[in-house]
Amino acid sequence: MPPAKKRTRTYDPVKIRTAVLAQFGNVRQAIRTLTPEQLALPTRLEGWTVRELAAHVTMAVETVSRNLDREEPAKAELALLDWPFATAARAGDIADGTRDLAAANPDLDDLYARTEDRLTRRLADASGDRVLAARTGAMTLADYLVTRTVELVVHTDDLNAAVPGLDIPYDRQALAACTRLLADALATKAPGGSTEVRIPPYAVVQCVEGPRHTRGTPPNVVETDPLTWVRLATGRVTWRDAVEGAEVRASGERADLGGLLPLMG
After folding, report:
1. Which of 164, 151, 187 is closest to 63 using CA atoms?
2. Nearest to 11, CA basis, from 127, 193, 147
3. CA distance linking residue 135 with residue 60, whole number of Å
4. CA 186/CA 197 separation, integer angstroms
5. Strands, DSSP E only, in 12-94?
6. How far apart are CA 87 and CA 126, in angstroms?
7. Which of 88, 19, 46 is nearest to 233 (CA)?
8. What is the pLDDT of residue 206?
9. pLDDT in tens, the chain (265 residues)
10. Torsion angles phi and psi, residue 223, rounded to 5
11. Cα separation of 97 and 146, whole Å?
12. What's the Cα-to-Cα distance from 28 to each of 152, 193, 200, rounded to whole Å?
């Protein structure tokens, strides 16, 4: 008998909208405390300062409002689990746009205030079924907002890494959605049931071809925390470094995920 087809995970649209606004608010509160010297610090994104990264966060959120203003495509073309693999092609354009945005908006708090106000107003009466003409591919608003949790969580972590003591908090729903989407993307990239990847308290997925376990402890297990998983999936840390640093626990001959990571370019 063939294995049962896995159901695609669903997300509560109300919780996702709340999470996006909450995490954007967390970042905004932190950015307004930064000094000019802190804004000039380098980040782990090559060539980007903290100021440029902070501007980019508004860009990642403003795409929701901007796409709601565009003509609606006839249908969605990009499934949610395809999105992580469609982002690398736009890296160059994003970098150029980010630098231009940062240069044109020296008052970051004003930029954040305008972005937050516009997003809140545009989401107030927008249906989750509305299709957006996103550059990665047409997606429903509901799916696209889940991708915004990834952008916000990843760049919150980038900012915290760049500025000692910044400690921007993570909205629980945003971190959960980000973790789950990237975990499910791994299962999509490497379908199978021989390895169990555990990211408590948010996600457990089965992946990698090979013998499938049916009961008890699986022979191949990977376990890590949500932020380490996000860093692995986005290339902020390598598999080898995470294992050697005891940030990942991996057991079993099929538990080495190094060849599958990162998921996003």
Report:
1. 151
2. 147
3. 12
4. 9
5. none
6. 25
7. 88
8. 94
9. 334 456 789 999 999 999 999 999 999 999 999 999 999 999 999 999 999 999 999 999 999 999 999 999 999 999 999 999 998 776 667 888 899 999 999 999 999 999 999 999 999 999 999 999 999 999 999 999 999 999 999 999 999 999 999 999 999 999 999 999 999 999 999 999 999 999 999 999 999 998 766 666 778 999 999 999 999 999 999 999 999 999 999 999 999 999 999 999 7
10. -140, 135
11. 22
12. 11, 41, 28
Q: Contact at 8 Å (CB) between 250 and 256?
A: yes
Sign of the alpha-carbon torsion through 98, 96, 103, 68: negative
| Encoded tokens for 243 | 């294992």
Distance CA 180, CA 168 (A): 21
Identify the three-state secondary structure at position 19. Answer: helix
Query: Which of 228, 226, 219 lies closest to 251 in space, CA to CA?
Result: 219
Torsions phi, psi for 261 (to 5 deg): -115, 150
**CA 162 to CA 25: how far, in whole Å?**
19
Return the pLDDT at 6.
Answer: 64
**For residue 18, what are the CA distances in angstroms to 24, 27, 171?**
10, 14, 10
| DSSP state string for 183-197 | HHHHHHHS--SSEEE
Q: Omega before 201 cis (within 30°)?
A: yes
Q: What's the token pair of residue 134?
A: 């996103």
Q: Which two tokens stand for residue 139?
A: 């997606």
